[in-house]
């Protein structure tokens, strides 16, 4: 009996695996097609100053509108793009689109505006990205003051990648450490990283009011970041309570649905007048 149950569990498991494999394969094929058909878009989400609530920057977030499956979230397709070696191409698409949109963003939101772009750790594994950016900076030196590059801490396990980050930072790009608090990095590591901004992950923000300890931890992260001359951005701010406390403990900027959702560039001015506008997806 037990043996039988074990066997059918095995069969079920491999059926699941097969299904997963098929889904992955289909997604991979579709990803290649999406690149050819230009089905990717870049949405922008505002980041506001915690005191004035004025927009200081935007985060560029990729969107994939599949012709019959609708929007497929980046959390689903980015890992697959990384696995199958398509992330460099997709990453460059986002970067080029953002660079194209910069003039409009400056005109609309003022010339102190900045845009942050997410970089996959894979994009730092070879020199394609850094070559592209250094050529860009050579022809347009002022571009670095408008751009922030968001990386995650796993980048720091690879020496060559760290070296590339240092080079990009030396060129003038601001470097932001995304999703802080989800990995293993401690504050002692942060002090040695070539970064300018610390983005506190939304998991911290969402449990901020759970316990006193959570709140103390958050407060200390912000304080230490400040001591290290790092700007802090809290992600996933959804309530006025979170906003008030984050601003009280000295977090410099806030990002979240409370202020704005990610929207296409055409909808930006509208979305900033009202935080109730929903993401068009
Ligand atoms: P991330 O870089 O940490 O981006 C923040 C995510 O939080 C975005 O999800 C954003 O829509 C979401 N978010 C913002 N405010 C709130 C809020 O108040 N509540 C909640 N629940 N969520 C909020 P999104 O756009 O689905 O992106 C997910 C992740 O996919 C990103 O996390 C990033 O890791 C990755 N990603 C997105 N675009 C790109 C890209 O162009 N290149 C690369 N390599 N990765 C990207
Ligand atoms: Mg990010
Ligand atoms: Mg994040
Ligand atoms: Mg994330």
Question: Can you describe this structure in just a few lines?
Answer:
This protein has 281 residues and is of the alpha/beta class.
Main sheet overview = 8 strands, mixed, barrel
Radius of gyration: 20 Å
Strand order of the largest sheet: 1-2-4-5-6-7-8-9
Global geometry? globular
Distance between the termini: 49 Å
Elements, N to C (H/E)? HEEEHHEHEHEHEHHEHEEH
Bound molecules: ligand C2E, magnesium ion
Q: Give average pLDDT, whole number.
A: 89
Fraction of residues in H or I helices = 40-55%
Strand content: 15-25%
**Number of beta strands:** 10
Secondary structure category: alpha/beta
**How many H/I helices?**
10
Report low-confidence residues grouped into runs of 5 or more.
Answer: 273-281
Q: Can you describe this structure?
A:
With 281 residues, the protein is of the alpha/beta class. It contains 10 helices and 10 strands. An 8-stranded mixed β-barrel has the order 1-2-4-5-6-7-8-9, surrounded by 5 helices. The longest helix is centred in the first third of the chain and has 36 residues. The C terminus is likely disordered. One magnesium ion binds next to loops. It comes from Marinomonas phaeophyticola. This is EAL domain-containing protein.
Supply database-style keywords.
binds magnesium ion; alpha/beta; 281 residues; binds ligand C2E; EAL domain-containing protein; globular
Question: Which helices and strands occur, and which strands form pairs?
Answer:
Elements lengths: L1 H36 L2 E10 L5 E12 L3 E3 L1 H10 L3 H23 L4 E5 L9 H12 L7 E5 L7 H13 L2 E7 L6 H4 L6 E4 L1 H5 L5 H16 L3 E4 L5 H9 L4 E3 L7 E2 L3 H6 L8
Parallel strand pairs: 2-4, 4-5, 5-6, 6-7, 7-8, 8-9
Antiparallel strand pairs: 1-2, 1-9, 1-10, 2-3
Helix pairs in contact: 4-5
Ligand C2E binds next to strand 2, helix 2, helix 3 and strand 6.
């Amino acid at each position: 009996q037990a043996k039988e149950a074990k066997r059918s569990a095995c069969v079920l498991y491999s059926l699941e695996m097969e299904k997963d494999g098929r889904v992955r394969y289909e997604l991979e094929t579709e990803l290649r097609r999406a690149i050819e058909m230009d089905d990717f878009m870049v949405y922008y989400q505002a980041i506001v100053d915690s005191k004035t609530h004025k927009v200081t920057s935007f985060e560029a977030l990729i969107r994939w509108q599949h012709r019959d499956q609708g929007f497929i979230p980046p959390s689903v397709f980015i890992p697959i793009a990384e696995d199958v070696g398509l992330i460099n191409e997709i990453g460059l698409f986002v970067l080029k689109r953002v660079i194209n949109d910069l003039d409009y963003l400056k005109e609309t939101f003022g010339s102190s505006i900045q845009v942050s772009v997410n970089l996959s750790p894979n994009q730092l594994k070879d020199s394609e990205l850094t070559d592209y950016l250094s050529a860009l900076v050579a022809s347009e030196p002022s571009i670095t003051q408008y751009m922030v590059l968001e990386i995650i801490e796993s980048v720091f396990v690879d020496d060559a990648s760290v070296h590339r980050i240092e080079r990009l930072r030396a060129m003038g790009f601001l470097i932001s450490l995304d999703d802080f608090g989800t990995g293993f990095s401690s504050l002692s590591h942060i002090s040695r990283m070539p970064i300018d901004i610390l983005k506190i992950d939304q998991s911290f923000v969402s449990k901020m009011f759970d316990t006193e300890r959570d709140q103390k931890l958050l407060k200390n992260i912000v304080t230490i970041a400040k001591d290290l001359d790092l700007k802090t951005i809290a992600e996933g701010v959804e309530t006025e309570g979170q906003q008030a406390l984050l601003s009280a403990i000295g977090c410099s900027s806030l990002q979240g649905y409370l202020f704005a959702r990610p929207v296409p560039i055409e909808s930006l001015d509208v979305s900033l007048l009202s935080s109730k506008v929903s993401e068009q997806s």
